[in-house]
Amino acid sequence: METIWIKDIKADRNCVTYHLDVSEGLVRYFSPGCEMFAEFGFDISNIPKSVLAVPVLSNIMQFAWLFDCLVWIEEVDQQFYECLPKIKRGFQEMYRNYRFGGSLIAAKVVNNDYHAEKESALLFTGGVDATTSFLRIRDSHPVLIDTFGWCVDRDEESRVFEADIAAINKFAEENHLQTEYIKSNFATFIRPEIVNKYLNKRLHNSWWFGFQHSLAFLGVASIVAYYFRIKTIYIGSSYTFGQAVNCVSDPRIDREFKVASCNVVHDAYELSRQEKIRMIVKAKEDFDLPINLRVCSFKEENCNHCEKCFRTMIGIVAEGGNVNDFGFHVEGNFCEALAAFLRDNVKELDKDHIVFWRDIIARMAQNYNELPDKETADYLTLFNFEKEKRECLWRYYRENFFSIIKRKLKGIIKRG
Questions:
Q1: Cα(225)–Cα(221) distance, rounded to whole angstroms?
Q2: 136 vs 279: CA distance, rounded Å
Q3: Alpha helices in 307-400 (DSSP H)
């Protein structure tokens, strides 16, 4: 049976480094050196090793279950150890036709209970989900936690992370909140491109989306929770009850996560994305809250040109809001900008995304009399997604015919 041994956990001031000994059959799935690190904004030297074990195990255990291997470790927090079978059961419910094996063997299981001194922490990026959760729990004055997990080494700089920090600091200052930032290589030390080849064949999913991201974020956030004695970590739901999506950030998984005296709430799962946007627009109107949404992944600011930006913007329009008041910037006529985007990009919208767009269009019809921008509502009401998608694809193939043929020929030659 293949094995992963968490050989050493080394805390050096504000950084913890994990050294793994991975058996031969699994080593190709890990980056050279088989090391993971997490860097915090405070000294972690006095945090027990059994708690410091949680971030690495939050990335390794689902891997072990997928590949039916044993994970060995010297010590682990009791609450986390006891929550693992429940998290594993959540994955098994999600992927009913796949048998998850593997297990954790710990030499020592340690109780690390504490008396809570702070009510809540919130995983916060400034997106729609996180902002909605903030509005729901703001009276508890949550500690805002943001993580950059795509480092290769500790010295790596990221302009995107710097932009995140600047925006979140501004939001925190306006709302009198504490912030904590974490750097890690958890998204790169397991090689997603290699694991994905295995997962795509068997489960039609990816490592990051289907198995890693929320557990990775909660794993490092648990160290913040332990240090500041936080009672509950909130993570905003990515999807809504009734949507059949095999995503690791699911209440069956997130809400089972526990470390020491800290639990997790998978928040606002009962709300659709449009209902979340409605709450955000109303909060700005009712309380004059400064809200600048950040929805563009891996960019320093909203690009105002991608599908996610436009989908969020029309959601704001559907609630009677002005997109330029919520962190977006569109010059001139919004409806014309939207029409130009759809003309060139409607071909990229799959069935799942079109469902989101139609939900927003239905809200526009429902809220029509309250809309300052009726032009956009009228345009989208008459927009035929299937017809426009066919025409967009036809234009694309016609305009790029020779480059498509050239690319396909290169692929055929490369394969043999």
A1: 6
A2: 9
A3: 307-318, 334-345, 351-366, 374-381, 385-399
Distances (CA, A) of 285 to 88, 280, 321, 325, 377: 43, 9, 9, 11, 21
Q: Distance (Å, rounded) from C-alpha 396 to C-alpha 405? A: 13
Considering only CA atoms, which of 146, 152, 297, 131 is closest in space to residue 217? Answer: 146
Q: Is the dihedral of CA 114, 116, 117, 123 positive or negative?
A: positive
Q: Which of 85, 83, 12 is nearest to 52 (CA)?
A: 12
Instruction: Give the DSSP H/E element, type plus range, for residue 19.
Output: strand 15-22
The 3-state DSSP class for residue 27 equals: helix
Which run of H or of E encompasses 62?
helix 49-67
**Across the strands, what pairs with 54?**
none
- Distance between first and last Cα of the chain: 36
Tell me the pLDDT tens digit for each residue of 92-113: 999 999 999 999 999 999 999 9
- Please check whether residue 321 is in contact with residue 334, taking contact to mean a CB–CB distance below 8 angstroms: no
83 token code pair: 């929550």
Encoding tokens for residue 171?
Answer: 């939001």
The rounded distance, in Å, linking the Cα atoms of 30 and 190 is 4
Token pair of 87 as six digits? 């998290």
Burial of 203 (0-12, 13-18, 19+ CB in 10 A): middle
pTM, 2 dp: 0.93
Per-residue pLDDT tens over the stretch 28-82: 999 999 999 999 999 999 999 999 999 999 999 999 999 999 999 999 999 999 9
> Residue 43 has which token pair?
């000294």
- Count Cα atoms within 13 angstroms, Cβ side, for 251: 13
Q: What angle do the packed helices 351-366 and 374-381 form, to 10 degrees? A: 130
Do 29 and 194 touch, CB atoms closer than 8 A?
yes
Could you tell me which residues come within 8 angstroms of residue 293 by beta carbon, excluding any fewer than 6 positions away? 126, 127, 128, 131, 280, 302, 312, 326, 327, 328
Q: Number of C-alpha atoms within 13 angstroms, CB side, residue 64?
A: 26
Residues 6+ apart with CB under 8 A from 68: 1, 2, 100, 101, 102
- Residue 256 CA to residue 260 CA, distance in Å, equals 13
CA distances from 75 to 66, 78, 323 (A): 23, 9, 50
